[in-house]
Design brief:
It comes from Parerythrobacter jejuensis. InterPro entries: P-loop_NTPase, Stf3_sulfotransferase. GO terms for molecular function: transferase activity. Keywords: Transferase. This is Sulfotransferase. It is a single chain. By secondary structure, this protein is mainly alpha-helical. The protein has one domain (2-419): Rossmann fold. Helix content is 55%, strand content 5%. It has helices spanning 2-11, 22-33, 44-58, 62-88, 111-119, 129-133, 141-145, 153-167, 171-174, 186-190, 196-199, 205-213, 217-234, 253-259, 272-290, 296-318, 331-336, 338-349, 357-370, 386-392, 394-399, and strands spanning 101-104, 243-245, 264-269, 326-330, 414-415, 418-419. The chain has a four-stranded parallel sheet. A two-stranded antiparallel sheet has the order 5-6. Helix 1 packs across helix 4, helix 13 packs across helix 14 and helix 15 (272-290) crosses helix 16 (296-318). It is globular, with a radius of gyration of 21 Å. The chain starts with a helix and ends with a strand.
Length: 420
């Protein structure tokens, strides 16, 4: 549907052709905001590489290049607005980010459930979904703080989610959410034009290779400043530790700990069959919106490779982290005894869990409504099989004694709006 709308708009002259050129994108963002300070220039190199990779490899359709231009425009405007707020309120960058609790696990390993359970505890700070979409307050935000105006960002997030649901109804069953739901900080890494979010929506292998070979510390430092800005906009106490999570951290634990040296780490583990199949399904259901050339077998191989790289880097990084700074949580344990598992997590965090239990129970009840349509997928959809995944991920399975389930069922992948 999105493809048809964009093509029709261009035919009528109401939607201009996309221009995925860095100088043009920078110029347009600066013109729209009326500012020209984009902050730390580190982002220029990943932006150059990402744009080249899109041109050479992504094979975007009309909806894809139109959406890409909008995404770049939004990120660049947010960078400009961030610098505005840092200059207007220098106290933002002085905010402390003490002892964050960071959930580290592969895609689809239960990180969202654990994150939302902890985020329901008011003793922690967390991002909300609308802040992932629009992390930076608009220029009228001081009127919002004064109670004179409503914050438009949750309204915008609701509209964007509605469009995403129309473009591919399966996307929000894979990751159910709402504007006010706790959400991960991957969008803050995207602000530096860095990270797996781009790989999960576009076929950009050259860009992926560059990210995997780069020191991500500058992107994490920028993310930390964005968290300070969000904490200020929430008017949250600096004494409340942040709850963070995104699968990107599996690849970048060294950079994460360079920026957050006192972080406490919760590692989640799940049967790799489920991790790889579900990650491939998530990427597939986004990629087919933006390209008419997505290949499910190619997607399967890429996310098997990526999942293996994640656990390999995570295991290597853990060798230098003190044991008392981390804890391991099995996905199956959360399924069978969420309360007992969370009690163990709270002992690790040296907190009494009981004050948070009513809010956790409320979240679990609300989650039933969020996930009315289960996420269905299989390895066979993506040209994979259980033996291949187990062989590739054997070291990880053995090291963390990950329970293995029956092979997940097979079905043929379907493109949005019809068969492939």
């Amino acid at each position: 549907m999105a493809e048809k709308i964009v093509r029709a708009g261009r035919k009528l002259g109401r939607i201009q052709p996309a221009r995925l050129e860095k100088d043009y994108l920078l110029e347009q963002a600066a013109k729209q905001v009326g500012m020209d300070d984009f902050g730390d220039p580190w982002f220029h190199q990943p932006l150059d590489i990402l744009l080249q990779s899109i041109r050479d490899e992504a094979r975007l359709n009309a909806a894809g290049d139109f959406s890409a231009m909008l995404q770049f425009n939004q990120v660049l405007m947010h960078r400009l607005l961030s610098e505005y707020w840092y200059k207007r309120h220098p106290e933002i960058l002085e905010r402390t980010l003490k002892r964050p609790v960071v959930i580290v696990g592969p895609m689809r390993s239960g990180t969202t459930r654990l994150h939302r359970l902890l985020a329901s505890d008011r003793r922690f700070s967390h991002m909300r979904s609308f802040e992932t979409i629009s992390p930076v307050p608009r220029l009228d935000f001081e009127e919002v703080l004064a109670g004179e105006r409503e914050d438009f960002r949750p309204i915008l997030a609701k509209r964007i989610m509605r469009v995403a649901r129309l473009a591919n109804p399966r996307t929000l069953s894979i990751h159910p959410t709402g504007p006010m739901e706790p959400e991960e900080e991957l969008g803050l890494l995207v602000a530096s034009m860095y990270g797996m979010k781009h790989e999960a929506q576009w076929h950009v292998p050259s860009y992926a290779a560059w990210c995997e070979a780069s020191d991500a510390t500058p992107a994490y430092a920028y993310m930390a400043d964005q968290l300070r800005l969000i904490g200020w906009s929430q008017q949250a106490s600096e004494l409340r530790p942040w709850i963070l999570k995104t699968p990107q951290h599996m690849l970048d634990l060294t950079a994460l700990l360079n920026v957050f040296p006192d972080a406490r780490l919760i590692f989640t583990h799940r049967d790799p069959q489920q991790v790889v199949g579900s990650a491939a399904s998530l990427a597939w259901n986004q990629t087919i919106i933006y390209s008419d050339h997505a290949d499910p077998h190619q997607v399967g191989q890429e996310w098997l490779r990526k999942s293996h790289l994640q656990v390999e880097r995570m295991m290597r990084a853990r060798e230098t982290i003190p044991a008392e700074r981390m804890i391991d949580v099995q996905y199956d344990d959360m399924d069978s005894d969420w309360r007992g598992t969370m009690e163990r997590v709270y002992r690790f965090l040296e907190l009494d869990m009981e004050p948070a239990v009513p809010a956790m129970e409320d979240y679990l009840e609300r989650a039933k409504d969020l996930k009315r349509h289960p996420h269905r997928y299989s390895l066979e959809m993506f040209g994979l099989n259980a033996g291949e995944v187990r062989e590739r991920m054997g070291d990880y399975i053995n090291r963390f004694d990950v329970p293995m389930e029956k092979p997940i069922g097979s079905a043929a992948p379907k493109r949005a709006g019809g068969s492939r």
